[in-house]
Write a structure and sequence with these properties.
The protein is mostly beta strands. It has strands at about 5, 10, 20-25, 30-40, 45-50, 55-60, 65-70, 75-80, 90-100, 105-110, 110-115.
Amino acid sequence: QVQLVESGGGLVQPGGSLRLSCAASGPIFSIYVMGWYRQAPGKQRELVAVMTSGGITNDADAVKGRFTISRDNAKNTVYLQMNSLKPEDTAVYYCNAVVGTGPYTTYWGQGTQVTVSS
């Protein structure tokens, strides 16, 4: 069973920075897409940023210019550098991995809380 383990969440003041990490382990041959989603209280889960194994990214408009996704394919790890954080970034951030070469299987991490507040 593939497992995704997130780290790096916490409490930060507006304008601050955090770096999230997510490491995948288990029977993995290939991870096609790896990235981050978030869910704020009372809202639906939404895409933050994802990256393919070839380096193609898809970022939400709300985080463009502030968040940067990166990936270490050799370590099956994805990172999210979050700068200039705003209170509206407060949410549980979930790591997501689409594994395989077709058909694909989607896995989720347990989530890590990010709170932006003064």
